[in-house]
Design a protein that fits this description.
The N terminus and C terminus are likely disordered. This protein is an alpha+beta fold.
Amino acid sequence: QKIFPANMPLELLESINNEKLGLYPWSEFYLVSKDDIYIGLTGLYGYSQYPDDVFMDWYGVWPQFRRHGYGKEILFETIKMAKEKKFPTFRLYTEVGDNDAAIALYRKIKMHEELYTLEIGVKNMVMFSYPLTDMPLEMAPDQVLRRPGLLSPRM
């Protein structure tokens, strides 16, 4: 289920963009459900510093649903949506130390890892990227075991 910007009050969306210095020209975020129960969220956005790439943000699985493969499936569904948008590269950045399970997943699927240094004063951040133009079989979202109704259709 797409949660915003469609369902987000315009003034809140504008405040987020202003807070982020207007660096994000577009965004879309989704609640993820299984059997009508929300289990996580994910999102994609554009970033003006990387205009040809798509970024994932607000990615996560609620604690009670972790360690069941949902994180990997949500990640692959998000990558699939990014690929459908015809971007050449999928990117994300995260903080080292707070997201060890997610970082292990990004490394397992062989995402490229580099130190994130674009913002002054940011420490312990890494950026992961993955080319969408040449997605190998082990990364292809269609190869993931499907759970019906996991990611609600986009609006």
